[in-house]
Structure formats: C-alpha cells, structure tokens
Write a structure and sequence with these properties.
The structure holds two protein chains of two kinds. Chain A is an alpha/beta fold. Chain A is built from seven helices and ten strands. The two termini of chain B are 31 Å apart. By secondary structure, chain B is mainly alpha-helical. The chains are: A alpha/beta, B mainly alpha.
Amino acid sequence: MSNLSNNKDLLILKNISHIYDQESQKIKVLNNINIKVLKGEMISLIGPSGTGKSTLLNIAGLLEKPSFGSISLSGYDCTKLSEDNKTILRGTEIGFIFQSHRLFQEFSAFENVMLPQLIMGKSKIEAEKKSKELLSALGLKNRLEFRPAKLSGGEAQRVAIARALSNSPNLILADEPTGNLDAISAKNVFELLYKLVKSLNISCIFATHNRDLAELMDRKLVLKNGFVYDE
Amino acid sequence: MELKFFLKNPKATQNVHLDLNTKLDKSFTIIDWKKRNSSFMNALDVEKNVMFVILTLIILVATFNIISSMIMLVQTKKSDIALMRTMGASKYLIIRIFMLTGSIIGILGTIVGAILGIIVSINIETIRHFISTLLRKNYFLLRFIFYLHYLQI
C-alpha cells in the first residue's frame, strides 16, 4: 500500500456514483457525490430512509465498491487497493457502529471489544488492557463480563462504541447508532461519542434522522435524491 | 481312504496345502476346510462385501450430514461474517474459522464414535441377551448359524 498524501483530509470521496441493478432496472442511489472529511471532524449525514445513507457509509467504509468515482482514506487511494489491503485498511483505519449494536451474543462485553484487536493481530494481553481501558472510559467498568442480552440498549451501544474504537481508528462510521434508543439514551450516547471523537482527534460520519443531534455536529450533510448538500 | 489333519493354526491351511501337494503323490486329492465349505465361505465373502458397501454408504450419509450442517451454519452466521469483515477479518480467516469448526466436529465425532463402537463390541453378548429378553425372542441366532464366535471373516 502506498500512502499518497499526508494532509488534513482524512477521507475524500470524489465523484461517487452508485447504481443498483434490480430486476433489470437500474437504480441510481448516489449521484456524483463529493465529500471531504477533515481529521477531527464530526459530520452528520441526514436524509429520509432509502436515500442511500447506508450505501454511502458502506462505500466510505470500503465494504462496497462504488459504480463510479474514487475514495481516498488516510492518503491511500482505495480504488487501486486489492481486497486484502482494503481489509487491512478497514481494520486499522475504520470503526463501525450500527443502528442495532450487533454485538456477538455469545461473548461478554469485554470479549466483544477484544475481538477486533485479536483479528488485527494484537496480543491477548495488549487487547485485554485496551478493552478494559475503553470500557472503563465509557462507564462500563462493572459490566465487563456481562453478555449483550444482559445490557440495556444504551449500555450495549456504548460497548459497540468501545469496539469501534478498539483498534484506534482514524474514522468512525456510525449508521444511525441512536436510532433504537430513547431520547435520553440517544443524547447520552451521542455526547459520549462526540467527546471521544474530539479528545482522540478522530473523524466521524454520523448518519441520523435526529435533526437535533445533527445540529450539534461540526457539519451537516443532507442526502436527497442521490445528491448530497452541505447545510 | 480319507486322511484328516487337524492344524493348531486353522489359518495356515495354504502353506500346509502347498507342502502336502509337493510331498504327496498326484493320486491324492487335497481339500482344506475352506474349500470343503466353499459355498459357506462365499456367502461370508459376499456378506463382507455387502457390509463394506453399506458402511461406505453410512459414512457418505454422515459426511453429507456434516457438510449440510456446515452450510446451514454459514447461512445462519452470514451477518456475523459480515460484521467480522467490517472489523478487518480477511476471507482466509473466516474460511479458517469454519474449517476449524468442521474439523472439531469431525474429530470429536470420530473419537466418540470409536469409543461407543468399542464399548458396544465388548458388550455385544450382554446387549444381545438384553434385547432378546426384552423382545422375548431370540433374534440373534448368528452365533449358531454362522459360528461367528470363533470364525474369523
């Protein structure tokens, strides 16, 4: 992998278009989208359901290949990367948070946070130390051995945040992480994530339907009819 | 006139047959116990082959069973696989996990199966007796029909 640049732009989506083939019908979900995410920036992504927010996050997270356009992450031109290198970049540079926490039910909160680190080749001792630190920082010191089923929605989402941060990524992609939470838990989870993003100087794209939360972020992007508008 | 030789080792008939053939006059006809009971031995041979085919089929069915349960496992774990991919897990790591799962199932199945098989074999007479008592009928006449308690197939 060759690093192209070393500037302040963490993520650059350039002329991204995406077309889905659905029963001989071509649906253009994203239309010539250009987004630049600076280091330490928290951006909200709002828009009605089905407008392609998740698709855009999947493309930014190197999970889907766009039909057209290029992606640059941490200076790497991702369009030229092999699948294996994309996987490595995804593991080291990106953390994902989903609407439902999507924690492994078979594992405890502690093990769930350890898993991404072990996947990326960290030692067990190192992974244990980092997991304890993160869960303690997120106020879950007394929930280390709890299985996800025993955690409240807000607690489970905090574990998911810890998991996303476990490999010290530079970018967090959050796909409606507060969508399943009540207003108070949603605000708490958001504030916690915002604080972490700012203190760790990482970037975050936060897809949400909650306009109040969107207002609290550094920048607001609106996705409508396949186009993205900066509000 | 008929001469009968009883050997200490009944399996050694072939060597003795050869020895006698070279040492005795051509007017002697040498017949060992296997040849004398050739139809019986053939029946045992057929039984052995049929058993081989049946056991092969059982192994095939068991193999397909493991394969289909592995396919089902992959299907049910699709979302977990996708999640692990977001964490940076490579395709090879995912394949390794499922290969390991399949191997563990296979090895454990073999060990448990072998242990159960040995236990059943050791206690076959007790089991026969128990089933016969339970059904109040002797379905296991093999011992008397086929002399299986001392004849090696």
